[in-house]
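Apologies for my clumsy wording, but can you show me some protein sequence, whichever is easiest, together with the matching structure tokens, please?
=====
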Amino acid sequence: MDRSLQAIAARAEEGLPLSPEEALLLYRRADLASLGALADGVRSRLHPAPVVTYILDRNVNPTNVCVTDCSFCAFYRRSGDGEAYVLPREVLYGKVEELRALGGNLVLMQGGHHPHLRTDWYAELFRDLKSRFPGLHIHGLSPPEIHHLSRLDKSSVRSVIERLKPAGLDSIPGGGAEILVDRVRREISPKKCSSAEWLEVMREAHSLGLRTTATMMYGTVETDEERILHLSLLRDLQAETGGFTMFAAWNFQPHGTPLGERLGNRKTTPAEYFRLIATARVFLHNFENLQASYVTQGIKAAQLSLRYGVNDFGGTMMEENVVSAAGCLHLTEIQEIERAIEAAAFVPRRRDFFYRIVDDRPLPAPAGAAA
């Protein structure tokens, strides 16, 4: 690194927040090995024990019917399409039963923006699932979905969350963020909520006591500056509320999408993923956890990301329908996840949504601790 980058790196090593301009310089100019080492050092400072966590969960998409027509999505169907669906309750019960049989307890529930399924429909579903499966954690309805419900109900976002939380909503996923810059959103998802509206859903959720996750989908039409702006907006909201549990990033999967066809099915490289996730680890000083994206990157790249600032391998998922609709599918069994973590010289341990360890195996001592 040159002297200017060394000065920025020194600030990051001390745990001091970097400016967006400093983060952009690191992202663009730091050699990948040095950037990775810097991010790995930040991870080690935040997580001194050599532990990488994961969670046993399942993706459930109650419906694929959607009115937003996002150009990057191969999953959704219009109402009336022969492949459109709303899952019957018995099918949903079966999916949760399979998860519980394996010892899992978290359902990630999100799907399309259905034109007729309102807040009451989801509230009834959540109450039903909670009644049948006590202790189930429902991680559900991304900010665009909640914003969509508020428009259908002609009510505020806060009102929607206030109705869903007592019905059983435990936390909110960070889906639908894509890039939190309206220039980009107007080009790739013009019918979806704005960046300010996405952030406002999260702000309201945090104020009502719900924790949420934060994400980025990169590799469409955004610039480097807009990627850093996205991270800045997340970091600012985290400073305000402290409500995010983690950050994850994944690249656009172009196959079978209108946007992919327009962009020549161009796909970003693994090196770009490592550079982005390492920069995020250094820049997001107030985020405790960064999660790998093995579903889009593959298990080998996810394993390598553990040396680029990542401390969590994510969920076992059991089922994935969104990125797989675009031709990308890297679901992996628990044993393979644990082997990948161990091969990277870390200790795998199972967690819950709040990053509490729920594994009976003992935890290793922090690095450098006396024996």
